[in-house]
Amino acid sequence: MKSLIVIFLVLIVSAVATLMFMEEPGYVLFAYADMSVQTTMAFFIIALVVILAVVYGLIRFLVGVFGLPGRMSEKRQQKKAVACQRGLALGLAEMTEGRYAKAEKLLVQSAKRGDSPMLNYLSAARAAQMQGAYDRRDEYLRQASQSGSNTEVAVGLTQAELQIAHGEHAQAISTLRHLNDVAPGNPQLLRLKARLYQEVNDSESLMALMPDLRKARAFDNPTLDKLEADAFGAQTQEIAAANELGKLEGIWVNLPKVSRNNPGMVAAYAQALSDMNEADRAEAVLRAAIKQHWDENLVRLYGKLAVNDVSRAIGYAEGWLRDHRRDAVLLLTLGRLCKQAKVWGKARGYLESSISAKASPEAYRELGELLDQVGEEKLAQDAYRKGLQLAVDGAEADAAPVAVAQPAKKGKKAAKGGTAALPSLSSGTA
What is the pTM of this model? Predict the structure, then answer.
């Protein structure tokens, strides 16, 4: 479109100029000393255009001649870069399909053709490690570090990742420590630190790393929450084994509020308190957390506490039934608490209600233990069998009650704590 406009304008200008020169051709006079040259205006303009075109063409020709070596060099560089990238793509494809030896060969060959072969050498190092060729792996890493500027972080991260994967924990710690001086706060560096601390079971260092992981958003929030809860759980287990109650409380108090509201953290803290014979304190922690945010794992743990005043705990748990009448975990918890209080009939009713709401192996196991306790061995075996079947099959077994209790024969006193009707799901103490 632009070319047509230019041609159209040139034609208009030419037509106008032709008409002008036909009416008044004009002339151009060049004089120097005793010499003079005179010509028409039209001839002068045409000659001037021709001369300018010739000069422009000559300049372009000279530029092309003298710039030829540079352009050839540039084309060679482009060709090498394309070959390097093609080799990288083919090598990565071979690695994906598990042909590591062929992948290594392609990656190394293509690396020698390119000017920026860092990625090729890093990928070759991975391929070598997959073959157990750790000397070649280290050599490729060395060549990658020498392949250009600003490669230190990328090479270091890859080296640390491969060292962790191979179980070279001491070397990985050294590599990560150096990288921490070079690129502190790098998200991938923090991820590798977290992975290393997990593998060496260094829960204390992992907990100390959590603020940096959150600040850098190294993982999504659910992953960070689980990572922190797992680390805290491992740390609290060690503290509980050493019976260091003061240390446990100090760590808990110094945690950020968002961490203390994490159900996984609350569960770990309460479990550690329970393990140190502080079940009543664990009960208060769990009760406050459950009141703030309903969590089935916390409710399940609540039923496992060996509290001093179990009737009081039953009262709190039955109060939760107002909002969670058909919650299988809450019913299981109430069954466990009633078992602990030796209220056998009520415990059986809650456990059967839990199975009816959602059958689980642990509910069947609790029911089997209760039935054994009251002397109903055949029913107990039936409960154990159904629980085992559910655990093996991974699907719900028959959720109906294990069996209907037979009434005591006339003239014989029923066993103490025998079967009872299903308890009311209203609030109240046992």
Answer: 0.67
Contact 160, 172 (CB under 8 A): yes
Q: What is the pLDDT of residue 415?
A: 36
Q: Please tell me the distance from the alpha carbon of residue 389 to that of residue 97, in angstroms, as a whole number.
A: 40
Give residue 10's pLDDT: 66
pLDDT of residue 419: 35
pLDDT number for residue 397: 43
Q: How many CB atoms lie within 10 A of CB 167?
A: 11
Find residue 29's DSSP bridge partners. Answer: 38
pLDDT at position 38? 76
Residue 179 tokens, joined: 């990288």
Question: What residue ranges of the chain have pLDDT lower than 50?
Answer: 396-401, 403-430
pLDDT for the residue numbered 304: 96
Which among 194, 213, 429, 192 is positioned nearest to 310, based on CA atoms?
Answer: 429
The single residue listed with the structure tokens 């109650």 is 245
Give residue 328's identity as a one-letter amino acid code: A
Q: Give the amino acid at 120.
A: N
- Could you tell me the two tokens for 78? 């482009």
Token output for 308: 């001093």
List the Cα angle 39/42/47 in 5-degree steps.
80
Chain-centre distance of CA 304, in angstroms?
33
**Predicted pLDDT of residue 97:** 92
Q: Report pLDDT for 270.
A: 97
Q: Measured between alpha carbons, how far is residue 117 from residues 72, 134, 141, 352 in Å?
A: 21, 20, 11, 67
